[in-house]
Amino acid sequence: MMKKKGNQEEFKVKRLKRQSKKEENIEKLYKLNKELKQEKEIRQDRYSKKREKKRIFGIRLRLALAFMVPIAFIIILGITSYNKASEAMLKSYEESSFQALKTTTNYFELAMQTVELRLNQLKGYENLKNYYSGTYKSDPITEMTTYKNLQVYIETTTYSDNVLANLYVFSKRGNNLSNYGSMDLSGAELVEAYLETEEGKRDEKENGAYSWSGKHQFVDEHFVQDKSKITIPYAFSVSSAFFGNGFKQIGYMVADIRLDLFQKKLSELELSENSIFVAISKDGYEVHSNEAEGVLIADKSFYTDALASSELSGTSYVDFNGEKHLFLYSKATKSGITVCGLVPYSYLISQAKAIRTSTVIYVLIAVVSALFIAVIMSTDMGSAINKIIVALKKASEGDLTVSVNCQRKDEFGMLADSANNMISNVKGLIDKAQKVKDTISLSTDEVSDSAKQLLIATQNISTSIEEIRQGIVQQAEDSEKCLRQSDELTTRVNQVSYNVTTIEKLTEDSKAVVQQGLVSIDILRDKSEETTKITNNIIGDIESLEAESESIGKIIGVINDIAEQTNLLSLNASIEAARAGDAGRGFAVVADEIRKLAEQSVRASGEIATIISSIQGKTKLTVTTVQKSENIVKSQGNALLNTIDLFQKIDASVGMIAKELTEITSGISGIKVAENTTLNAIESISAVSEETAASSEEVDSAANRQVESVSKLREATLHLEAETKELNEALNQFRI
């Protein structure tokens, strides 16, 4: 009873605390409404300021920026087109110029091979070899006629060939040959002087091979021109030794290739006035596309690098005379000349610059057009939007008598009509809101009074339910104590049952072990009988072994007799050999060996007899030992029979114990049944008490929730009153 009174007092204290908290919450709610109003006014001020700032970013600027987006893509397209065109043109110029340069190099190589072919024909000309080999030295007239014919042949060959410019032939004997002059020295002197020069030493060493160079300085120094004949300028020169009859080196030939041939082809390669294309010999002599002379490329580092490279042709960008140039080169493998070119980079990108200029002009036109269109469109749209903004601003301030006057037929006209409809609908909404506000004010007063009365009744119900709940809780605690004591009794009975079950199981295990022991003893008895049989067999085998040993002794006696007879025979043989003298000396040796063998046989048979005697002694000891083990096995069999009797008695005792344990187990089962019946009854009482307590708690919880709901209803009523006042103040701002 004391506990119940204490619980009631605690419940009253809690209820008073709840009421005080509710009143505090109502006061907080009023404060919160005021704070929300202030925050709302602050947010509206901030929003209006932000809208003023955003107006700077108006539709005109947006349209201008919108038009600038495609213009930006046009600019990007122009830049990309210019870059792609520049790359494509540069690549096209590089490839076309490079291919033309290699084609020209191949053409020069072919022309120079043609000159070598002419010299090969001249070397194989029979009259030439005969003349310079001295075939006609005994016939001066024929020799002179042959010389004139050779002179005519050389002139005709030179003038009729569009590649060959000049041709010189000189030898140790005979007169020199040339298409437009002669030499200032005789043949032998000229050859001797030529062999002292680098050119002569080279040709003598090459032994008939062709060597190309830029100029033939030796020939130019000793040549005397015939003024009646035409001189043809040459680009490069080739020289070689030639052979007479008997394949003997008798003279030298020098041939020039035409200069105009090279100049024409090099000029065809020039892409602009500032382009430079030259052909350079192995000794650094340059041939230009015009009449210019001197060195332009051969002394430059990029040329020496290209010459040292393993590549036969290539391109690169180099700096030449302060400007960027495209450098191209191609090497002729047989003649050794290199065709080079320099093309200004400014010329290569000249057409791309025209594309860039056109792109810039078109982009500027597009920008100006877009800005002009954006200004016109934004001005037109801005006037319509400003009308709508002015009307909506007045409506937002509470003046709902305004309207938007816009005669446009586009989307802005539709927007103006929608704004007018919105203002008209807001008027109707405000009118209805005022009527609803009056109705809400009356309903709020009635709800507030009802909530007060309902709150008092609900609190009284909650107090009564709390007292019922406390009595049920006390009953549940008593039932729980009884249930705990029953649980302890159940635990002890279960422990006894468990111990009996364990003993019963151990008894069954012991019985099984006894049965296994009987089986093992039966097996052991069988093994003992088998051991006895084996022992008897061993004794029989040992006795047989002893008999065999005696037979071996008899054989050894026979061997000893044979050895004695052999010894006597060897002695007789020795006597007979001594009588025979030198003729029987060999027979004496044999007899001596036979005697030794007989002695060894006697010794061996003696040793065997000793071993057999030892075996017979050990055999007798083994027989004695085996007989002892047979007696032990018999004693072991008797012990096993006694053990079997003991195990059978143990088995019978274990069976009696198992029967008694079964009766104990059945008694414990009866106790458990009665115990379970009692336990179920207590659990039913406890369950009913718990359910009753839970139901009372649920009813109490429902009553508390109802109290809270009524409190919230009162709070909502107060809040609704405050909102109704605010709504009235807001509606008074509008003019209808």
UniProtKB/TrEMBL annotation:
Transmembrane segments: 59-82, 359-377
SMART domains: HAMP, MA
Keyword Ion transport: no
Region ranges (Disordered): 1-21
Gene Ontology CC, one term: membrane
UniProt domain Methyl-accepting transducer: residue ranges: 450-700
Basic and acidic residues composition-biased segments: 1-13
Molecular function (Gene Ontology), one example: transmembrane signaling receptor activity
Residues annotated as domain HAMP: 379-431
Homology family: Belongs to the methyl-accepting chemotaxis (MCP) protein family.
Name of the molecule in the record: Methyl-accepting chemotaxis sensory transducer
Species of provenance: Lachnoclostridium phytofermentans (strain ATCC 700394 / DSM 18823 / ISDg) (Clostridium phytofermentans)
